[in-house]
User: Fold these one by one.
Assistant:
Number 1:
Amino acid sequence: MAEDLGISGSYLNLMERNQRAISAKVLLKLSETYDIDLSDLTSGTDRQLVGELFDALRDPALGKERVPKSEVEDVVGASPATARALVNLHQRHTALSRRMLRDDGADGVASAMRDTVPANDLVRDVLHRKRNYFDTLDRAAEKLNRTMKLRQGEPMAALRERLRDQHKIVVRIQPHELLPGMLS
């Protein structure tokens, strides 16, 4: 699906878990690719705006104080145009910060801006630019797969054994509920 939409798998995963808002471009591509009526996808506009504003207000550039989601919902409900303006302002700020980092990363101003762009956004940008493909890593994974003769449906047991036996690392798989809000 990510390939069909021209986005990285990690970005799709974030959207599926409501950790990233779906952009208009992705909505249009989704509609075209899977012959879906766009109105079926956009019925939750307020919910999407709440998610976008909530993400924007979690930006480290705004400090450590967090705005509760209930307050964000109140802002969107009372003044959706203001909420949209704040989201647009944040998007422009982030784009400018990224451009400054890219264009003159060693410059003092750009170095100061580095702290205002969340690390996960920078990583997502790299993954997107590389289309989530890193040749050396991919080749190494394929070689390891052949060496270990991993079966498609159950690689975890063999990988856990390898980590334990060769690297002295013990892996325990926990249900998602034990670590709510954590990224995998």
Note: The two ends are 20 Å apart (CA to CA).
Number 2:
Amino acid sequence: MDAVERIRTPRRGVTRNGTRDSERTQAAILVAATREFAQHGLGGARVDRIAAGARTNKRMLYYYYGSKEALFVAVLEETYASIRRAEKALSLLDVDPVESVHRLVEFTWNYYLAHPEFLTLLNSENLHGARHVRKSPNVREMNSPLIETLAEVLARGARSGVFRGGVDALQLYVTIAALSYFYLSNNQTLSAVFGRDLATARARKERLQHMVDVVLGYLRADRCA
């Protein structure tokens, strides 16, 4: 049994109260680990600090997750699962295509603002060549439904004549994510280089409107006429 399998293998032979205690302990470990990995990266993270933050001990951490790397995989899985759960609540197929895209752009921006750990964890994993994400059989499944939904939104928009045809849903999603990601990940250096505070409430509001205009402007059917 490898480390990833150990993450998802339920512990047997416990009472109902014991199960609840186990679930609470594992949830506390994930919260503490997310904070630790986001702040220090995989290499700098310390199991002692994670255990202390979760108010448990290293023995329990290794019991549930097997190793620090396996725990990092679990944190990445939960990080992706959290944003996908939030995206589902957008109900993108229940509104017109323009509103759907507007919602997705605004959601992505606000989610990154509210969850800076999402960006730092991705930065850390990219430094490791995404080898931990590749170990997870769940992450790809989490991301596929969103791209399929966005593809349907784009198809509806093309059929109704408001969007151009032939837009790749994956490419569009990467663009939406990049417009938020680069601005926020490099906010300090951008502000310093250009002598303009790009972290103020006004600057962030202007950035969001700019992103919406850029994405919807690209999708407009009449831009190809």
Note: The chain has one domain: 3-224.
Number 3:
Amino acid sequence: MKDAKTMAYINMYGILGCLEDLCRYSGEARELVSGKPVSICFAVKNGPSMVIRFKDGTCAIEHGIGRCDIKLPFSTCEKFNGMIDGTVTPFPSKGITKIGFLLKNFTNLTKIMETYLRAKPDDLAKDDFFEASTIMMFHLITRAISQIANHDKVGQFSASNISDGTIAMSIGGKIQASIIAKDHKLTTSRIVPHHYNAIMEFKDLKLARNVFDGNVSTLGCVGNGLITMNGNLNMLDNMNRILDRVAVYLA
């Protein structure tokens, strides 16, 4: 089962966090945010908060409540999740004069993002799209791991068994992220330190995509060497338990 609060953290930092990559890879997305700088703050009561800043075709994410042009408050995690699902229409407490950007530009951005995160076979047949979509999925999954570890009861149990240190995750040694454990809380970073405690590496983008889409067995890929795991096996084992929960939340 999914926990609404955990889902809200994944939706905010995981899903909306993909907008940074979307603006890097999609010319259509860059065009939508190429005008005057605009910032949107999402604030969920007793839940996550974040500011998204759009400027000159780029997107930058800041955790927490900060200076913004548009502020969207949500009284519950369920209502924020409803916005992501398209069942709840938020009303800004600030920036009503910029409602046009919210209803048009931002809405269209999320539609483009969905084509990358729920990619169709015809789109994945295009090499550039396949690469961008898979990289976005990789970073979404690594961010979701930390949110599930910190907020989901099953994830918290696994995180309680992870000692302080860093787990590196990689696709072919080129696309990388790290899961940093401190006092049984996890954070995700795109920076992988020179020294880490464990590593999980996918052979290449094609393999990673097949794993993400559930087309191949992760365990089987470990067995035949397509996925390598080295270092602290206890850390990897517990992280993989959390990874199993990612599939539940992102299904």
Note: The chain has eleven helices and nine strands.
Number 4:
Amino acid sequence: MADDKQALLDRVKNDIIEKNICPDLAAQAKNLVMGDGNINAEIVFIGEAPGKNEDEQGLPFVGAAGKFLNEMLAEAGMQRSDVYITNIVKYRPPNNRDPEPDEKKAFWPYLLKQLQIIQPKVVITLGRHSMEYFLPDMKISQIHGQAKRIQFGDDKLVIVPLYHPAAALYNGSLRQTLIDDFMNVPKIIELMKKETK
């Protein structure tokens, strides 16, 4: 089954390249950054877009924010190899600027395909850019750390919006909030498992 999933994910990657999604971003990026981790994961983390380190290595969350994410995973009793990590936008925006609305819109169908293939129980959005597509009209400052159940195609999906690790690195008060929210993630997953039994 994992081989089938990997083949399907590879097809999504090839589709992005063949259809030349966001050609301006693609032209200045070194790598298309699809995702990293366990393709059978119960948890998928979604950030906004790759940064400099991610672009160079072709992997999401490998810079300072990625180190912080790894530390929080470890504190919550998880490893990167247990989860799957990706971004909405798969190419680095120039100078690490925020992704534009049309860039997010262009990549959105491919993110949905990734989720349909992996079929996680919980999606954790990192930052407002990835949250707003799943939970439009909501403010991250009001709902961070709260599990929200949404209709996702034929299934229900649990979304847990968290602050982006990069924001927490620059803002000390957010850092503790993010750590506290993160420590609740295993409890949320246990609750979801009980509900689906």
Note: The chain has a mean pLDDT of 92.
